[in-house]
Design goal:
Keywords: Membrane, Oxidoreductase, Transmembrane, Transmembrane helix. The chain is an alpha+beta fold. The chain contains 12 helices and 21 strands. Strands 1, 2, 8, 9, 10, 11, 19 and 20 form an 8-stranded mixed sheet that branches.
């Protein structure tokens, strides 16, 4: 039975961030990951200003900027109306040193963090080691993975929405699942000459979409289009490249075809764990909360969880604080998930898919007015860039 002060289950961006800051604080970490490597699957790709701030002193932000695409603007568009509102994040330069988003896929961020962690003798990772069970007692926590057992003072569950760590502690995961699945289509087509920013939200009662640019594996970058599907559509049809191209043509017709390089289909949930701490077990990222991707907030929230828990856990392990400090982590981050993450992402979807023509007209008018009034635009971007939520949560005691 191997021992470590902290075991982190899951090597996604949240788990790797927690490991990075714990190791940086001098706390050894053992990480258990079910996969055999960091995969290039097309998942989260937006990094917001507060996340860049949290990584800045460590040098990680500089590396993100080297790998990512800086997106100063984001657009709200109507499928028929075209551009409705253009938001310039430079308005936030009075508030943050990073008044922009960075489009950088989560696997790139994960590799940046992993490359730094590999340099430390305080970090060990076990690939292809899925956790089967987690049990705790007064003195520590045991994680079982196949025939092996690992012992730690604390365990951080960063193992996704189906978290074994969360389920092993019988922690509820309340919320709901949307009836429609989301389809992500990745294409080489460049939307920028057509007036699109690097980050766009396209409103329509039936065919709304989110369209954004990512670095991809090509010098010119790639574009992703996320849109809803109907429950009766077959997975094999939705993932078929030819049918994906037809789908894009119906959404945004153009001469010539769209080159499709990837498709991905996934169920979408809005859920929050009933607690982020149960004794010596702590939850972060998708293990603690899941949400729809509109607004690009989920990965950022998971990273913020990781920054919070690592600072507090390091203080406890090093004898600088009582473990009641971990209850503050739960209060702060669960409030963040409920009051900001869930509220904002649910609202984002409602705005895009509004079906009532009168209400939709009011929403579009309100978005136009907000974008053209610097005071309102600043307030709106404080929310959508996550700065406001981070400040409110930091004040919770």
């Amino acid at each position: 039975m191997a021992a470590a002060p902290v075991i982190i289950v899951g090597a996604g961006p949240s788990g790797l961030t927690a490991a990075f800051f714990l190791v940086r604080a001098g706390v050894p970490v053992l990480m258990l990951e079910r996969g055999d490597r960091i995969y290039d699957d097309p998942r989260a790709a937006t990094i917001h200003p507060p996340t860049l701030e949290m990584f800045a002193d460590s040098g990680i932000t500089a590396k993100i900027l080297e790998k990512g695409i800086v997106a100063r603007y984001w657009q709200f568009r109507g499928l028929k109306e075209g551009q409705v509102a253009l938001f310039d994040l430079d308005l936030l330069s009075d508030t943050t040193g990073f008044p922009y988003r960075v489009q950088c896929e989560q696997h790139r961020l994960s590799r940046i963090l992993y490359a730094e962690l590999e340099k430390s003798p305080d970090f060990e990772i076990r690939w292809s080691t899925p956790a089967d069970a987690v049990t705790q007692d007064a003195d520590g926590v045991t994680v079982t993975a196949g025939a092996e057992s690992f012992r730690a003072s604390y365990v951080i569950g960063a193992d996704g929405g189906r978290s074994v760590v969360r389920k092993s502690q019988e922690i509820g995961f309340e919320g709901f699942t949307y009836p429609e699945r989301f389809l992500v289509i990745t294409t080489t087509h460049d939307f920028e000459p057509e007036g699109f920013s690097y980050s766009n939200y396209l409103s329509d009662p039936d065919r709304w979409a989110a369209i954004f640019k990512v670095p991809g594996d090509r010098p010119a970058g790639l574009w992703r289009v996320t849109s809803p599907t109907t429950p009766d559509e077959r997975e094999e049809d939705l993932l078929d490249f030819a049918q994906a191209e037809e789908r894009l043509q119906k959404l945004l017709p153009k001469e010539g075809g769209y080159e499709i390089v990837h498709t991905n289909l996934y169920a979408v949930h809005q859920r929050v764990a009933e607690t982020f701490r149960k004794g010596r077990v702590l939850l972060i990222g998708d293990a603690a909360h899941v949400n729809n991707p509109l607004g690009g907030m989920g990965m950022n929230f998971g990273i913020h969880d990781a920054v919070s828990v690592s600072a507090k856990l390091a203080a406890v392990i090093k004898g600088e604080a009582n473990d009641a400090l971990l209850d503050l982590f739960d209060r702060q981050r669960r409030h963040a998930a409920q009051a900001f993450l869930q509220f904002q992402t649910i609202q984002n979807k409602q705005v895009l898919e509004e079906k009532d023509p009168v209400q939709r007209g009011k929403r579009l008018d309100d978005m136009r007015a907000a974008a053209t009034d610097p005071v309102r635009a600043h307030a709106h971007m404080m929310k959508t860039s996550m700065i406001e939520g981070v400040r409110v949560v930091a004040a919770i005691e």
